Amino acid sequence: MKVLGIIPARGGSKGIPKKNIKLLGGIPLLEYTAKSALASKLLSRVILSSNDNEIIEVAKKIGLDVPFIRPENLSQDDTPSLSAIKHALAFFEAKNEKFDAICLLQVTTPFREEGLIDKSIQKFESENLECLISVREVPTDFNPHWIFEADANNHLKIATGEDKIISRRQDLPKAFHRDGAIYITKTDVILNQDSLYGNSIGYIESKNNFYVNIDTQKDWNLAEDIIKKTEG
């Protein structure tokens, strides 16, 4: 199976200026994801997709392949990841290079445990999945079966639509949230269904105790605290 690893890193971050190349623990944030990707034995190719020359320069220094510059119209705040992925696939298609699947690796989730990418690809292939994402278990207090939402009358109802709440913690089914570390999708699903998820989603649980998905300065501060803990 040929799997294209794509690391999207556009310029123009507003919450944290130059976030993708800002130094975290003395190295650019981008480098954490790059190291994980370049260590993979099952990614057929790893590329950076960016519109920003400064990010591209840093990427090349840390060993990433940058085969193109992403167009500005695909590098806006509201540009979905799917558009950047389809652009990359079209670029390679024009060069008669095809991939069975893509593996999207977000820079904002820097702390992946060793081997997670290859474990994910192995599961994706062995189970013949359309899509696989990395997840973490939702803490019990935030399980959707214990979450309420307001209805049209501003009364609370169980978010899952059930009439009665599950009273015992032990009876709650497991619930998961995406952690942003891994997204693997078959190329056919992306191109034919215009979807990153397809009709069914497989998953792999991230085991690293340290987790952050960096979007705000508060998230960045948490990432710095994690670095201090791992170094200490």
Measured by DSSP, the beta-strand proportion falls in 15-25%
Count of all domains = 2
Q: Estimate percent helicity.
A: 25-40%
Secondary-structure content class: alpha/beta
What topology, given as strand order, has the largest sheet? Answer: 4-1-5-9-6-10
Write down the overall geometry: globular
**Strand tally, please?**
10
Please identify the top-level CATH class of the largest domain. Alpha Beta
Output the helix-strand order.
Answer: EEEHEHHEHEEEEHEH
**CATH architecture level-2 label of the largest domain:** Alpha-Beta Complex
- Based on CA atoms alone, the radius of gyration comes out at 19 Å
What's the tally of helices?
Answer: 6
Give the averaged pLDDT, no decimals. 94
What is the straight-line distance between the termini?
A: 40 Å
- Largest sheet composition: 6 strands, mixed
Here the CATH topology of the largest domain equals Spore Coat Polysaccharide Biosynthesis Protein SpsA, Chain A
Spans of at least 5 consecutive residues whose pLDDT stays below 50 are none
**Relevant CATH superfamily of the largest domain:** Spore Coat Polysaccharide Biosynthesis Protein SpsA, Chain A
Please outline the helices and strands:
Blueprint: E1 3-8, E2 23-24, E3 27-28, H1 29-39, E4 45-49, H2 53-61, H3 81-94, E5 101-104, H4 116-126, E6 131-137, E7 148-150, E8 156-158, E9 176-186, H5 187-193, E10 202-205, H6 217-231
Parallel strand pairs: 1-4, 1-5, 6-10
Antiparallel strand pairs: 2-3, 5-9, 6-9, 7-8
